[in-house]
Amino acid sequence: MSDHFFVVTGGPGAGKTSLITELARRGFHTIPESGRAIIREEMAHGGDALPWADRLAYAERMLERDLRGYSDAQALSGPVIFDRGIPDILGYLTLCGLPVPPHVAAAAKAASYNARVFLAPYWDEIFTQDTERKQSHAEAEATCAVMRETYTALGYKITELPRADFVTRADFVCKQMAT
To answer: Which of 46, 49, 64, 138 has the highest local Cβ count within 10 Å?
Structure first.
């Protein structure tokens, strides 16, 4: 496993991106979540590789972008924090009840991250929906559970983030990365 690649995962609306933004502000290398960028692109161009249209096409686009981000991160020194990792795609397909193509499963297993994966738990008080995040509270909670199961099945150790503001969460992550 790649000791300096850290993943932050969990359900939608759990504060992952706010945490990643704070860690970037503190000088850490970060790799953004691919899902939202793909949704914006598809909506702008009338595409259907969307989680509410063609879920498999959406997953394939995420895989393509995440593999590129992972490859680009190889050139970075020091800790790199990923807003979701390649195994999240495996979890997404599982959550959707779709078959996992062999190349997606292989990519999820081949991706090497630090054994410690940070999980942003479902947090009802901060969960919101928007034009790109259409999941219900129940779907967000289920996504968190599937990501925990997916990463655990791949041999990662889950470290749950505290339900706290993003600065406190960033302090927590920094302390955990140092141990």
So the answer is: 49
pLDDT score, position 140: 66
Residue 76: predicted pLDDT: 94
β-pair partners for 120: 10
DSSP letter string, 64-75: HHHHHHHHHHTT
Task: Return the pLDDT at 92.
Answer: 93
Please name every residue paired with 82 in a beta bridge, in sequence order, or none if there are none. 7, 31
Which pair of structure tokens corresponds to residue 175?
Answer: 């302390």
Place of tokens 């939608």: 12
Instruction: Give, in degrees to the nearest 5, the angle at Cα 118 between 96 and 72.
Output: 80
User: Within 13 Å, how many C-alpha atoms sit on residue 13's CB side?
Assistant: 22
Residues of the chain below pLDDT 50: 127, 133
How distant, in Å, are the alpha carbons of 29, 92, 151, 173 from that of 179? 19, 30, 20, 10
DSSP 143-173: HHHHHHHHHHHTTPEEEEPPSS-HHHHHHHH
| 83: three-class secondary structure by DSSP | strand
**Contact of 55 with 89, CB cutoff 8 Å:** no
